[in-house]
């Protein structure tokens, strides 16, 4: 079995750039969570946003 190559090191970010990147991630997560919550509240008739009841978590 071949050894797994090491990932390339990422360049160090300045404090301002790191804060901006963290804020972008938080914003993206907030948007995704909000959209998922809206799907759960009022799903389209042809779509269910998750397995319920959980009989087969791989069948959506």
From TrEMBL:
Biased composition (Pro residues): 1-10
Protein name, UniProt field: Uncharacterized protein
Entry superkingdom: Eukaryota
Region annotation (Disordered) ranges: 1-25
């Amino acid at each position: 079995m071949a050894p797994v190559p090491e990932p390339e090191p990422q360049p160090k970010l300045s404090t301002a750039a790191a804060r901006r990147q963290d804020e972008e991630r938080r914003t993206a997560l907030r948007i995704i969570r909000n959209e998922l919550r809206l799907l759960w509240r009022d799903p389209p008739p042809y779509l269910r946003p998750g397995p319920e009841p959980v009989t087969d978590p791989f069948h959506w």
